[in-house]
Batch of 4 targets.
Target 1
Amino acid sequence: MLRQRTIFFTAIVAVVFSVVLAQDRAIAFPWSIDMYRGEAVQPLSVAPRVMPKGTVSTEGAEPPMSRIASMRLRNPLPSTPGNIDMGHKLYDMTCAPCHGATGKGNGPVRHVLEIPPANLTGDAVTGMSDGYIYGTIRDGSIVMPGYGDALSPTERWEIVLFVRSLQQSQNATAAK
Ligand code: HEC
């Protein structure tokens, strides 16, 4: 008698469970996949929205490009006192700690660096193209970290203008 009852109840429970599980609507059971069965759009089930024509990024993002490929980029900014001044401010904040206020590679954190920061007014960097310096600011160098996430393309070009003005003023002084 007890065995028959157990079989009977087990069968009822099994029937109830299979009816509940057969539902494809969200009915809060089984709880583990309840959210999955909801009305939400599944990842990648809809193609990503295409950007409307003429959309301009608010972050000034640019297509991915290596430092070497950046060598050929031209500085779109004119070398005006205003742009150089802006570059000077950004340089003091971002580059001067390592490269020093005058670009000689002797900034205040120089003593903790294993590898010395480059002299930005030396022949090597003076001979580099604007695009290469721009790409170095964005991606970093061998041990120098990149500042692509901290400086917009315009800000990087402004720094390039300031580095050029440092080189010019120091080379002019050296020639005297
Ligand atoms: C944390 C320290 C540090 C900061 C900050 C830093 N640099 Fe450097 N930079 C270095 C070191 C070290 C090197 C030399 C080793 C190397 O090439 O990685 C270097 C090398 C360079 C070079 C030469 C690259 C080459 O290919 O030889 C340039 C140009 C340069 N830095 C520009 C900048 C500019 C511009 C900034 C500011 C946006 C800046 N750096 C910020 C540490 C730094």
Target 2
Amino acid sequence: MTSSKVGITLVAIAIAALTTGGCINDPVQDTRSKAFGTDFPAGVEATAYHRPGQPCTACHSTRGGVSPRFSVAGTIFWGSCNVTAAEYKDEKVRAERCDLTPVDGAEVRIRGSNGGEDCAVTNCAGNFSFDDNVVNFPFLVSVSKRVDGKLIQEAQMGGHISREGSCAGCHDNPRRSESPGQVFLFAQDDATGKIGIPDSVKSLIASERGKKCPDDTVPARRKCAP
Ligand code: HEC
Ligand code: HEC
């Protein structure tokens, strides 16, 4: 394409963005948030339980234009999605081998560069969020899950996060060299080295699987353990 054609194309995109009235007049951001389609999962309204695994702040940010605005948000799953890109395209394989069971009541702790610390608890969809401007970037993150007060798993991210507020901005499925895949608590049983979720935890997950989220759209914010 010649440079003048590129120029015309860019102008056309800019005009389209200005006239179609998306979230905001930012073509890149608009495309990014529209790429997620209407409601997800189908039939789940736009509540705290919607769009698990998607990059919340693509929409819930000043740039995304949707309120409430989050500084940091995401979803925690029990298991991982360790399949090839080709396998991931196959819905059946995905359903069988990607564990999309959300972790209810996981604690997501972030430690900011200013020494500040904050913690959010996931809801029944595995979703959590921090309001705007609670913690300074860059920050470290760890995720833990307690059952009856007893810690059953803690997963820590090695590196820090310097500007991306959505976990899914990096944690995109499937797991591959460019992405660690969805945020998960168990890749293997540390005690036995067996790939997958430990048997001791499986019964727990069985009780969380298929649980329906309540209808209240704004769940009361739960507190992390001290
Ligand atoms: C594609 C854009 C998009 C993504 C991605 C997205 N949301 Fe939303 N969300 C919306 C829209 C639009 C609404 C409805 C806002 C309204 O009614 O004013 C909404 C509503 C909500 C609400 C309800 C607010 C209320 O007052 O009832 C919460 C909470 C929420 N989203 C959390 C999340 C979380 C957590 C994630 C990520 C796991 C997420 N959203 C991902 C667009 C998105
Ligand atoms: C800038 C990209 C990026 C962002 C944003 C990000 N991560 Fe990560 N995360 C990584 C990479 C890369 C790894 C694998 C290497 C490592 O542990 O540092 C990872 C690993 C992890 C792990 C350990 C293994 C796993 O995948 O479960 C946890 C837990 C984790 N991240 C949680 C989170 C949470 C929670 C958020 C959102 C608050 C988040 N991450 C946001 C890039 C990111």
Target 3
Amino acid sequence: LLEAAAMNHRASAALVLVAAMVLARPASADDAADAQVLAISRKHCVPCHARDPAHPAFAKPPREIALETIGELQRHAAGVLEQVVETRAMPLGNETGMTEAERDALARWIAALR
Ligand code: HEC
């Protein structure tokens, strides 16, 4: 009986390990997508959309929209999708030379939020 209990214990430990690996996988895929989207925003949006914008034309974030964190990007996702993918008004004048691939990556990330 003790031996069976020990085997059971090992089996459940293995199960926990497998479950942890399965659960960890989507999280790390999300992390990679988050990192990519943060890099895109830093390059194409944050010059203006920051609490302290580097762009000389702005002393504060346009429309009070800062896009410096994942939380901010999530909060403004609908507006970002509209401005970057639908109307393409952003980045303003495409000053930063945002590519189609970067717009697609942002659109995919926003679609996955739903
Ligand atoms: C060169 C500066 C600049 C850059 C770069 C820029 N924006 Fe903007 N953004 C503005 C300005 C200025 C406004 C306000 C426009 C207005 O009031 O009509 C604005 C407004 C917005 C709005 C609100 C639009 C509305 O009418 O509600 C969103 C959302 C937005 N930007 C997203 C982005 C995203 C996402 C990026 C990066 C892909 C980006 N912006 C890059 C200057 C910039």
Target 4
Amino acid sequence: MSFRLIPSDLLAMATIALCWMPASGGPGGAIAFPHDYRGWTHVKSALVGSESSLFATEGGIHHIYANSAAMEGCRTGKFPDGAMIVYDLLETVETRGLTVEGTRRRVDVMVKDSHRFSESGGWGFRRFLGYYEAAPISSPASAPQVCFGCHQSQSAHDFVFSTFRK
Ligand code: HEC
């Protein structure tokens, strides 16, 4: 026996598939990987070397990028809904005094949505492993509450550490 799918069946299946997609798993659960962030504005960079106490987790070079809504926040100090900021951490490779970017270690993302993330200053936080895998990392240290716990110290600047270097 065989059966044929008619367009309305396909539509129903697509609807079911969409409804089955996992809902937000907490304050950062549903933040998607921002594939276009390399086209955003570069805010600043910093190098964390082996003498730093932060080397184990932050060692390498990190670049910070802001989308256009986040750039408004950089100018005014108040980040509107839709603002997204990326912390892009790469390993460094040093050869005879020349330091260049190596493999991407991690991408940390902040998204402003004052309704969804009202319990964390309006910001959702999520951590991804590398660019190509773009897999969300779920570990106690990557929990959105832990992210916000530290970013809370920047409440006077809407929970953002970085300032735009003109
Ligand atoms: C122990 C403190 C701490 C924790 C925990 C932390 N951050 Fe940050 N984060 C910082 C600091 C400090 C900077 C600024 C780095 C710089 O100046 O180069 C920063 C920068 C950022 C930025 C760039 C915007 C900004 O505020 O400058 C993003 C995005 C970000 N963090 C996301 C996250 C995410 C997502 C998590 C959790 C998975 C997290 N952070 C956990 C301290 C922390």
